[in-house]
């Protein structure tokens, strides 16, 4: 694969201000006629060739309007035109022929369940027609779609509908016009036979927008929650960011074959149906929360991504990091802010930290790529969002908002860079953000080491920052780290200080900007307990010695919900790592009674939200524990430490947990709201503990049998399957679930997932067998992720079996998937990224599996890129 470099960016010689597309959709051959208005950029010489991108295209016809057939050279991957007219502007007609049915990569035009649909980000448009397929080419689109009416009564594209009618022979057509110039990656088309849920929204200036969500016939009701989330998103963007929707219609289409969550095509969002369809019988509370967040995310892209887009793909975080930040804020406002923040941090640590600490580390704005599809990462999205959050922390909410307003005003209709983004905040605040800009350019998770001492009214913090070396970045510069903090007195209240020296401290934030600071707080009346990185104000790791009694004090007293959660999480992690070391040394793990008592206290503290209690009582996952151990990991010992601590906490809290479990039973009608979901979450976490005690299988089985919604059904089945794997009652419950949900692929995904994540060496055989199950389809990304994705990332003992057979199996599966869908195989291959932190024998086996992929006969650029960077 070719290496693309940020510093090589050049504006293109030509522009394409307008494009008319005509699609004639038919099963065997679909034809696309693109009528482009091409304009030579001022300063470009008339003899400059026009080089259009293509990917696997068959060229049928090419004409220069008024000039006939132009001099050209066409390959499936490029179309080069020479001897172009002297005129600054000319029209170019290109006809290509496609076969959507054979497109298994799910990029460009393909068919999913009989529905024609497109996916063009990042470089899928070039699989439809030859084009300047880069995000800084903005064009006004006019689209005509022709199809057989019986096969495709519904014909959709971007923008507003402008014409439609009959063509004879059972064919019909529709025309769409999008007045907003847009990059090709936002083009979309959908044609098929779908049902529809309709509604409308009145914008802040009083315009009516027709809303429609298109789903498989019979599933219209399952789109009700998504529709509600859409209307709430539209209103929120007006209130929180002053952004109004700008077309007469907004369409969402749910398809079942999709590589990611959803796509923000202008006025025509296309979704993975997993993130649209929901009711209590088919979706868990997590599914509902994801639907709300993704509907919002794609809608928010209308301004951050579509109206203001990226100059080039290196700037991907410009739209993604900012839009994730916006969807996080939306969910925080719709649900519980404190709980939402904890969940975000857990996700960041689970997905982004390992990326930043392994061979695939890259800056939030990468400088190099071979395959841009491999850079839709947790670093670009989640860390990108954290960077925007830090910007708001540093500038304050008000200045941040003026900066955003300036951004919309100054850059509407443009393709921008991170420099443009930072500049609006510099202009709005009068601050120099050049050191802050390192967050975009320097990879690796910064570490802060803090030593605290207190003497005679003065609290001294010795703060050291270091950023570990990452691939191709060995020397790092000091970053600007905004560390929110609190000093807590023995009465549990914040204690004051009269002055601080050694670092800037303002509005409860320490601004760490140098490699080391000696920060002194004067006038501190007593030795305070420190609450640091409140609200997770900076995405860093913290090394600070804190006494267990201070952490326990924070659990009870920190006014910051994240700080309270973090303190208990640290106690749990410390206990788990100590237990792990004992187990590795051949001893029994033992735990302090205090931790179980604290768990009991949190569980039953009625002043705390149930959702918060559920999060606090969820033990760090095996992957979390492994990450904190850092090296030489033995996953079997990690599982043993986690199971024993869980059983220890359960045994010490048998009665209060049992009582809580009964009290939390929901007897009313199902509601998907955050408070109801929080109660279910707490009850299901408690169930996990109770299941470890005598009689636990009975409780789990009863939970499953009496469940009245998918959340509880899955909690019961998962608990039974994971705690009592292989027992006849588990097998019976699994069979029962499969029988009840056989015709519901999204529910069957949960069934695959429960089995693929059942701990232990047997999981490999189960997964192998399930690949032959009639509900499993290797061409469908949701099925593949449910079975193979969760096996590799969610089953530490199964995937990292000591004999390495799961690695070899997974390598073979990746190659099979790679033949059809390279984006998917590459994404799955990232499961190997932390292989160097395993103990040596497993490391060697994982390395062999990676080497075997690299040496295989035909490997896509996508998969090869991940494998080679993982091995480097
Ligand atoms: N902007 C989109 C990213 C995307 C994508 C979506 C679906 C299929 C393939 C894709 N490649 C990239 C999704 C988003 O961030 O909103
Ligand atoms: Zn996005």
Automatic annotation (TrEMBL):
Name of the gene this protein is made from: pepN
A biological process from GO: proteolysis
NCBIfam families for this protein: pepN_proteo
Keywords: Aminopeptidase, Hydrolase, Metal-binding, Metalloprotease, Protease, Zinc
Record InterPro entries: Aminopeptidase_N-like_N, Aminopeptidase_N-like_N_sf, PepN_Ig-like_sf, Peptidase_M1, Peptidase_M1_dom, Peptidase_M1_pepN, Peptidase_M1_pepN_C, Peptidase_M1_pepN_C_sf
Residue ranges of domain Peptidase M1 alanyl aminopeptidase C-terminal in the record: 549-872
EC id: 3.4.11.2
Pfam families with a match to the protein in the record: DUF3458, DUF3458_C, Peptidase_M1, Peptidase_M1_N
Protein name: Aminopeptidase N
Reaction(s) catalysed by this chain's protein: Release of an N-terminal amino acid, Xaa-|-Yaa- from a peptide, amide or arylamide. Xaa is preferably Ala, but may be most amino acids including Pro (slow action). When a terminal hydrophobic residue is followed by a prolyl residue, the two may be released as an intact Xaa-Pro dipeptide
Domain Peptidase M1 alanyl aminopeptidase Ig-like fold: 444-543
One Gene Ontology MF term: alanyl aminopeptidase activity
Cofactor needs: Zn(2+)
């Amino acid at each position: 694969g070719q290496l693309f470099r940020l510093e090589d960016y050049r504006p293109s010689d030509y522009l394409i201000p307008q494009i008319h597309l005509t699609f004639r959709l038919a099963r065997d051959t679909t034809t696309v006629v693109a009528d482009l208005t091409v304009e030579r950029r001022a300063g470009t010489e008339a003899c400059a060739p026009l080089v259009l991108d293509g990917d696997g295209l068959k060229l049928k016809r090419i004409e220069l309007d008024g000039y006939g057939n132009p001099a050209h050279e066409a390959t499936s991957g490029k179309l080069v035109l020479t001897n172009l007219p002297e005129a600054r502007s000319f029209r170019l007609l290109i006809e290509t022929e496609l076969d959507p049915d054979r497109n298994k990569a799910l990029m460009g035009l393909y068919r999913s369940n009989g529905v024609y649909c497109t996916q063009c980000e990042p470089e899928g448009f070039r699989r439809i027609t030859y084009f300047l397929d880069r995000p800084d080419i903005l064009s006004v689109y006019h689209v005509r779609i022709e199809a057989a009416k019986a096969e495709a009564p519904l014909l959709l594209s971007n923008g507003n509908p402008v014409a439609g009618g009959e063509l004879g022979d059972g064919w019909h057509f529709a025309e769409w016009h999008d007045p907003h110039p847009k990059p090709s990656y936002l083009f979309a088309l959908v044609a098929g036979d779908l049902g529809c849920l309709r509604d409308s929204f009145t914008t802040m200036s009083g315009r009516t927008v027709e809303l429609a969500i298109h789903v498989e016939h019979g599933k219209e009701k399952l789109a009700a929650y998504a529709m509600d989330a859409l209307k709430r998103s539209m209103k929120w963007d007006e209130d929180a960011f002053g952004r109004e929707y700008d077309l007469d219609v907004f369409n969402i289409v749910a398809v079942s074959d999709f590589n990611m969550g959803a796509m923000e095509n202008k006025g025509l969002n296309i979704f993975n149906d997993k993130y649209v369809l929901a009711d209590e019988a088919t979706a868990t509370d997590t599914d509902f929360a994801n639907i709300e967040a993704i509907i919002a995310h794609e809608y928010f892209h209308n301004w951050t991504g579509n109206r203001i887009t990226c100059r080039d793909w290196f700037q991907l975080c410009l739209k993604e990091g900012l839009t994730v930040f916006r969807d996080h804020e939306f969910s925080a406002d719709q649900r519980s802010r404190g709980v939402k923040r904890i969940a975000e941090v857990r996700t960041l640590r689970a997905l982004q930290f390992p990326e930043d600490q392994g061979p695939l580390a890259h800056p939030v704005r990468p400088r190099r790529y071979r395959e841009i599809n491999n850079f839709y990462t947790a670093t670009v999205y989640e860390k990108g969002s954290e960077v925007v959050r830090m910007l708001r922390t540093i500038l304050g909410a008000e200045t941040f908002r003026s900066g955003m307003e300036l951004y919309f005003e100054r850059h509407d209709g443009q393709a921008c860079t991170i420099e443009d983004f930072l500049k609006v905040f510099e202009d709005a605040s009068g601050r120099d953000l050049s050191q802050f800009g390192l967050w975009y350019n320097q990879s690796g998770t910064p570490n802060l080491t803090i030593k605290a001492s207190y003497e005679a009214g003065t609290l001294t913090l010795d703060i050291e920052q270091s950023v570990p070396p990452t691939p191709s970045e060995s020397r790092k510069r000091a970053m600007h780290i905004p560390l929110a903090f609190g000093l807590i007195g023995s009465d549990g209240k914040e204690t004051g200080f009269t002055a601080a020296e050694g670092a800037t401290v303002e509005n409860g934030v320490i601004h760490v900007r140098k490699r080391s600071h000696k920060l002194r707080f004067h006038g501190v009346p007593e030795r305070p307990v420190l609450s640091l990185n409140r609200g997770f104000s900076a995405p860093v790791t913290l090394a600070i010695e804190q006494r267990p009694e201070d952490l326990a004090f924070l659990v009870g007293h920190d006014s910051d919900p994240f700080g309270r959660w973090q303190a208990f999480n640290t106690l749990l992690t410390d206990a788990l790592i100590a237990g792990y070391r004992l187990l590795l040394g051949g001893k029994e793990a033992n735990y302090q009674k205090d931790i179980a008592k604290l768990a009991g206290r949190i569980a039953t503290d009625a002043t705390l939200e149930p959702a918060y209690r559920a999060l606090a009582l969820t033990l760090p996952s095996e992957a979390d524990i492994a990450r904190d151990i850092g090296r030489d990991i033995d996953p079997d010992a990690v599982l043993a430490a986690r199971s024993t601590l869980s059983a220890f906490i359960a045994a010490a809290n048998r009665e209060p947990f049992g009582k809580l479990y009964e009290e939390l039973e929901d007897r009313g009608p199902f509601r998907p709201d955050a408070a109801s979901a929080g109660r279910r979450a707490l009850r299901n976490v408690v169930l996990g503990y109770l299941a470890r005690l005598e009689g636990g299988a009975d409780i789990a089985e009863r939970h499953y049998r009496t469940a009245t919604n998918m959340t509880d059904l899955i909690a019961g089945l998962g608990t039974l399957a994971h705690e009592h794997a292989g027992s006849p009652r588990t097998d019976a419950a699994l069979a029962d679930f499969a029988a009840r949900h056989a015709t519901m692929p999204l529910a069957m995904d949960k069934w695959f997932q429960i089995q693929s994540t059942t701990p232990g060496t047997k999981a490999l055989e189960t997964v192998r067998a399930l690949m032959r199950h009639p509900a499993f389809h290797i061409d469908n990304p949701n099925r593949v992720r449910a079975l193979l994705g969760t096996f590799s990332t969610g089953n530490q003992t199964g995937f990292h079996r000591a004999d390495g057979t799961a690695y070899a199996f997974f390598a073979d599966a990746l190659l099979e998937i790679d033949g059809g869908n390279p984006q998917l195989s590459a994404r799955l291959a990232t499961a190997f990224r932390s292989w160097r932190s395993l103990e040596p024998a497993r490391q060697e086996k994982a390395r062999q599996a990676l080497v075997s992929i690299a040496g295989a006969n035909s490997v896509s650029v996508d998969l090869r890129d991940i494998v080679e960077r993982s091995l480097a």
